[in-house]
């Protein structure tokens, strides 16, 4: 056999060995968990507008209890069930949250072991079979009509150094994934409500009245210390009781106007059913039970002998160019933090408990309409001009037309103002509000806070 033939034989043998090695070598098995990498967690959920309920459950390690926050569409309106079904401005935020959940994808497989759930922070906060308090995630559930579950996820801790990458698991499944989470799933009460509580523009405020008084709770009488009336003429404010060398501090009054316009709330409580909408007087005394009176008193509100409602920290009245008068009554200090402040309890015993920081206060809001702000103009002596063409009008017809236009304009202002007051009262009627101590300090002022000596 020639050298060339020997070389070819050796090469053929080598190739044969390579083929046999390839055919007999053990093959790598790709785990099924890697096969769905990049897929959406809920591929059938594609329309965020189908979402009608968002529930977020978090676990509080200090109290060893799960905390639920829920927003839902119920009987034609958005409400927050955990806060006495308070109205929520939730549709836009919910649809944005739903859209963010739709976009969450299985970016990377992490583990198929239950033993890793604690380290990844994806233990179900509702799981009572697990004894550990650590490693529990945030469970986010989105539902549509008829409580159909559209998405249900447990969001865990962030990957170290990558805050937008979090460990994620579907409840009742072991597999843990890494997923990019770019949405703010808020459980803050303030984020889900109408922030413009009073719905007033500071440019429309024409009058402010500070009522500084105290209450003798035993006799129900009022010790009126001062009543300060501020009136606006164009951009200039004046107050009653000022001496010739005093003036309204423009900076301080503007700060007050801004605080009124932007007044935020941090919590709500339902009012007793027997109270009338404007709350300045009870129209039917029999509808207010002793339990209702006790509820009011626990929050710092009292009826005087002549059935006027007063508050232990005085009042602030705000009059607008629409003829609407807001009355803000400042009540008791509210103690506590978290849900104790935002949602509270229904029992007077717990309302009276002085535990935790007293950094909030009850606020009672009502409105009324002041028709005297719009004096009625003269009415036309005749409306015959309505049955004539304009070229046939007499001087008297033109005068009557002008009078009618002014009277119609007056009537429109009266209607708009009254309807606005009614709408606001319907909004405020059922609720005690809670404001922070900082907000209280901005709107609960005295004469000396707003009046200064004239600059020479």
Outline the structure in words:
There is one protein chain. This protein has 456 residues and is of the alpha+beta class. It folds into two domains: 33-192, no CATH class; 202-453, no CATH class. Helix content is 26%, strand content 30%. Strands 4-3-2-1-6-7-8-9-5 form a nine-stranded antiparallel sheet. Strand 1 (53-60) and strand 2 (65-74) form a beta hairpin. It is globular and about 120 Å long.
Question: How are the SSEs placed, and which strands pair?
Answer:
Elements: H1 3-24, H2 32-35, E1 53-60, E2 65-74, E3 77-80, E4 86-87, H3 91-102, E5 108-111, H4 117-120, E6 138-143, E7 149-159, E8 162-169, E9 176-180, E10 205-216, E11 221-233, E12 236-239, E13 246-248, H5 250-261, E14 267-270, H6 290-298, E15 301-303, E16 309-311, E17 315-320, E18 324-334, H7 339-342, H8 348-352, E19 360-369, H9 395-428, E20 431-436, H10 437-443, H11 447-450, E21 451-453
Antiparallel strand pairs: 1-2, 1-6, 2-3, 3-4, 5-9, 6-7, 7-8, 8-9, 10-11, 10-17, 11-12, 13-21, 14-20, 15-16, 17-18, 18-19, 19-20
Quick recap of the structure?
By secondary structure, the protein is α+β, with helices and mostly antiparallel strands. Helix content is 26%, strand content 30%.
Estimate the helix proportion, in percent: 25-40%
Strand content: 25-35%
Largest beta-sheet characterization: 9 strands, antiparallel
Strand order within the widest sheet? 4-3-2-1-6-7-8-9-5
Low-confidence stretches: 21-30, 276-286, 346-352
Number of continuous helical runs? 11
Mean pLDDT: 86
**Distance from first to last alpha carbon:** 125 Å
Integer count of domains: 2
Shape: globular
Category by helix and strand content: alpha+beta
- From the alpha carbons, calculate the radius of gyration and give it in angstroms: 34 Å
- Strand elements, count: 21
